[in-house]
Exostosin-like protein
Amino acid sequence: MLPLTDKPLSPHKPQQLHRKNSFSSLKPYLPRTWLIFFVFFLQIILVIFVRNFHFFSVITTRHHQPPIISANFTAVNTVDDCPSGKVYVYNLPSFFNTELLENCRELNPFGSRCDTYTNDGLGRSATKLAGVIPESLTGAWYWTDQFASEIIYHNRMLSYKCRTLEAESATAYYIPFYAGLAVGKYLWTNNYTAEDRDRHCEMMLQWVHDQPYWKKSDGWDHFITMGRITWDFRRSSEQDWGSRCIYLPGMRNITRLLIERNSWDYFDVGVPYPTGFHPSSPSDVATWQEFVRTRVRTTLFCFAGATRGLIKNDFRGLLLNQCYNSSGSCRVVDCGGSKCSNGTSLILESFLGSDFCLQPRGDSFTRRSIFDCMIAGSVPVFFWNRTAYSQYEWFLPGRPESYSVFIDKKEVLNGKSIKGVLENFSKDEVRKMREKVIEYIPRIVYAKPHEGLQGMKDAFDYAVEGVLNRVKEQEKVGFKW
């Protein structure tokens, strides 16, 4: 025991010993003794606690795998719901989108388009399909316009799970400009000038180019939906059709989602035409898939379309003639005039009742009928590669022969029998192609809810994820010019 005095004991003077009782002898040492004892006791308790905690941690880890906890005891989600990145949606002035819809009576010189773009771009409910489709799915069908994609994408983007409100954290930037609606009203008469057709696009680019995130990337991480075919935005001279929006210098690096792309332009991406089927849940999709899978098909092939009387050697007219001369093997829906534009069930019924559907080019290389046909579980027959194969790579199977038939248009012009070609496929081959078509239905439809389909990707999801992935690809050294 250390002495209680700071003065050293004299080595020359021995200590004088006195007898004291035990309590009296310990009393001067009690404060320090209790302190040492208390510290020693705490050490023992701490050792026991640590050993027990380690044992408990090992057992828990083996059997329960608890979530990772951060320093502030908040659970951390270890699953990344947005592995491809996030999208920032520009808050464009309403002049470029919603005001166009508010003035829907002016969008077309031939009549109001207000009913066409109701229900957030889906259009009117398809009430005339009652009895043709399963009763449980009557609320999933609409008379959707083929040029409504920019409205549909905008509404979906605002509720997209990978949307961010912090621009600096975004991988890509979405420009919600309704380019198709903006130019549509100026296409059909000579009352407007080339400047009228270009005005909205030029003003949009001026606005976007002033944004700091455009200046940072020169537009490589920006994208837009343009609801018409690419050729409506590629006017070469003042007298030609359409606007020159895509040819404007500021559009060069912007990725463009179009229902028909220019196959030689990297920044054009072909996305599915909007169809009438807009499921609300994965169960809606499954119900429809089973319906078309088990459908009794009484006709070998069908064709829905109209002739182009002013075109010499009109290919559509040739197809119609082959159908009419096929002794009941082909079903025809002649869409001459406006027979197919006012909400008829004839086209869908034709596709549902046929193994194959003929898909020539439309006014351009593609047509919405491709997707109407496939949603009905009918196998498409193509005559031009650019009708589908070089258009929709993100959405259709990589092996064209797995889901479609190709007959070169030149062979048909030289007299080849379409019926003869299609009759050569066995029932098992047709069944396999149909099954591949049915498998891809979720990838070519646009869901009804703004949040999309819980647990299932639709065409919108594949399109936006495709854009995000290509933005990352563009960041590689030597990619950009």
Notes: DSSP finds 15 helices and twelve strands in the chain. The mean pLDDT is 84.
